[in-house]
Write a structure and sequence with these properties.
With 268 residues, the chain is α+β, with helices and mostly antiparallel strands. It has eleven helices and six strands. It folds into two domains: 123 residues, Arc Repressor Mutant, subunit A; 111 residues, Orthogonal Bundle (Arc Repressor Mutant, subunit A), CATH 1.10.10.10. The strands form two sheets. The protein has a four-stranded antiparallel beta sheet. Strands 1-2 form a two-stranded antiparallel ribbon. The N terminus is likely disordered.
C-alpha cells in the first residue's frame, strides 16, 4: 500500500534535480538515467502509472517553458506533468534538441527557460535617440531671446527675474538655436544674443514675425486675459532705442542696422 501511494506522486523533484545534473554533467541526455536504459536494480512496479515517453514529456515541458513569463523550476514542471513523466529526462532531451540552435534551454536562478542564444544577442540590439525635454531655465531663456533679440545676458536676467545660469545659455548655443549677434554700443560693450535659422526650422516658423503675439498667446491659454493687459510682448525685429550694435572688429555701423551678424558670409 505504501509503495502504491508513493508511485502515484510521480518522480521525486529532488531526485529529478540530481538526474538533471547527472544528465548535463556526464554526457547529456543519452547518459541520463531514464533516458532509455533501465537502471540496474529497479524492479518494475505493476501498480505504477504507465511511463510517459521521453519525447512526449519533452514536448509538454517545451510548451510550458514557451508560455512561461519566468523560469520554471523542476518542481513546478513536475507538478504540471502527468504521473510517470520524467522531468529530468525531458529537460535533457530538450537541451539536446535545442543545442546549437537560435533558441536554447538555459538554467536561470534554479529554474529553466527557453532563451535566445548568447551569440545572437547582437541581432536584437537597438540604438534609439531619446528626445530630451529642454530644461525650464533654458526654455525661458530661449523665449526671452526670441522676443527681445538682440538681448544681453543682463537683460535676460532682468526680464526673467533670476540669475542666468551658464548651463542654460550654453545648452542653447550647443543646440544651435542661439548665437552671438554683436556688441551693443554702450559702456562695457556687452555681447548680445539672437536666434538662428535652426530655431526657425525646428519650430516650423517662416520668420521671426511668425512668432505668436499677445492675442495668439491669449487664444492658446498661455497667458491669463487679465495679465495680458499689463503684459507687453514686443515683436522680434522691432528696433528700440539703444539697440545699435557694433561689429567686434571694425567700424561702427552708421546705417541704423538692428544688429551685426557675425556668422554671416563676409561676401554677403
Amino acid at each position: 500500500m505504501t509503495g502504491r501511494s508513493r508511485s502515484r506522486r510521480g518522480p521525486d523533484p529532488q531526485e529529478a534535480l540530481r538526474r538533471i545534473e547527472a544528465a548535463f554533467g556526464e554526457g547529456g541526455a543519452d547518459d541520463a538515467p531514464g533516458a532509455g536504459d533501465p537502471v540496474e536494480g529497479d524492479a518494475p512496479d505493476p501498480a505504477a502509472p504507465a511511463a510517459i515517453a521521453i519525447g512526449a514529456a519533452a514536448r509538454m515541458i517545451e510548451a510550458m517553458l514557451f508560455a512561461a513569463t519566468e523560469p520554471l523550476t523542476a518542481e513546478r514542471l513536475a507538478a504540471r506533468l502527468p504521473a510517470g513523466a520524467d522531468v529530468a529526462a525531458g529537460l535533457a532531451e530538450l537541451a539536446r534538441i535545442y543545442a546549437g540552435r537560435g533558441v536554447v534551454l538555459a538554467e536561470i536562478a534554479g529554474g529553466w527557460r527557453l532563451q535566445t542564444a548568447a551569440d545572437l544577442e547582437h541581432l536584437f540590439a537597438e540604438t534609439r535617440v531619446e528626445p530630451k525635454k529642454l530644461p525650464k531655465p533654458a526654455l525661458e531663456t530661449l523665449a526671452v531671446i526670441a522676443y527681445h533679440q538682440p538681448v544681453t545676458r543682463a537683460e535676460i536676467e532682468d526680464i526673467r527675474g533670476v540669475t542666468l545660469s551658464k548651463g542654460a545659455l550654453d545648452l542653447l548655443l550647443e543646440i544651435g538655436w542661439v548665437r552671438p549677434r554683436g556688441r551693443r554700443r554702450s559702456p562695457g560693450r556687452p555681447l548680445t544674443y539672437g536666434t538662428t535659422d535652426a530655431f526657425l526650422h525646428h519650430f516650423g516658423l517662416t520668420s521671426l514675425d511668425a512668432l505668436p503675439g499677445k492675442d495668439d498667446l491669449k487664444a492658446l491659454g498661455a497667458i491669463d486675459a487679465r495679465a495680458a493687459r499689463e503684459l507687453d510682448i514686443p515683436r522680434p525685429g522691432e528696433a528700440q532705442a539703444g539697440d545699435a550694435l557694433d561689429e567686434e572688429n571694425g567700424p561702427a555701423e552708421t546705417d541704423g542696422a538692428f544688429y551685426v551678424d557675425h556668422m554671416a558670409d563676409p561676401a554677403d
